[in-house]
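Notebook B, p. 112. Complex prediction, attempt 2.
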Amino acid sequence: MNTNEPVIEVTDLRRVYGGGFEAVRGVSFEVARGELFALLGTNGAGKTSTVELIEGLARPAGGQVRVLGHDPYTERAAVRPRIGLMLQEGGFPSELTVSETVRMWAGCTSGARPESEALSLVGLTRRAGVRVKQLSGGEKRRLDLALALLGRPEVLFLDEPTTGLDAEGRQETWELVRELRAQGTTVLLTTHYLEEAEGLADRLAILHAGRIAVSGTPAEVTASQPSRISFELPTGYFPGDLPPLDSLGITGHEISGRVLRLRTNELQRAATGLLTWAERAGVELRGLDIRSGSLEEAFLRIARHVSEQDAQAEQAGQAGQAEQSQHSEKEHVA
Ligand SMILES: Nc1ncnc2c1ncn2[C@@H]1O[C@H](COP(=O)(O)OP(=O)(O)OP(=O)(O)O)[C@@H](O)[C@H]1O
């Protein structure tokens, strides 16, 4: 296979649940060999619904998925041995020990790693004899990961892999994922942790209400967000006493109490202008906070923006219904 050829290709993907609810509404993206692509999104955005289609666990209502050049649903036998799945719920028999679980799984996996290697990869060697039901939530996630890695997959699907892990466990999992990626494994990750996506992903997409709202490298997505400056107005000063905000490259502002919050796409210019003004005026900008655009900002803006759109659409719908019912009343009266 050409190394530039995408390992995962998703085109105009759609998923409709019983009752007609469209959870995935035309999602398209590609993941190249050796790349780590992260899907982020609010609760219910459609991450799991999308990933399950790519894993071949369900048939799309529309669009196309290709994994390693095959349809993962209709050509499951060609795809399954080459991919590793770490689902949100492993669902393994709780009475088996960690070691028995790995051996059972290895029995169904061709070319499986030795048990000791799989357990040591995820730091579970010392828990080999413990029953699954006695593992902590974080240890269960590690076992899920060990099983996903058992067949040395070319493509690894990680659905919220660090949920339930403490800070150290999370760092260890990230280190392992980085190593796997360095060895050429292609990874599709869904996560709620923005720093996880920021630290691991080559590219990412933020899903909202079944659609991709923004995608790109973490740096591209972050750079598309405005930077922020906030401080307390010095006593006796008003916003009009500052230099004209647009002359400092400030594109928006709001004031609550004495705290002024500014938005800018030219952080250095805006910050320098304000600090120079404060220096000359001999005043202190208390509580000064200067921060570049962040992935968190992008995420929150998308969630807020789309909820505003939803609210507007709902209002427009209600207004339309009210108008229609007034209209039909009039027709009735006439
Ligand atoms: N089996 C199902 N039947 C009907 N609706 C479903 C089903 N599974 C999911 N949904 C709905 O589809 C939407 C997307 O759900 P999905 O689980 O894909 O979101 P998600 O982004 O993975 O969310 P989370 O971050 O909470 O895991 C939600 O509105 C959810 O209620």
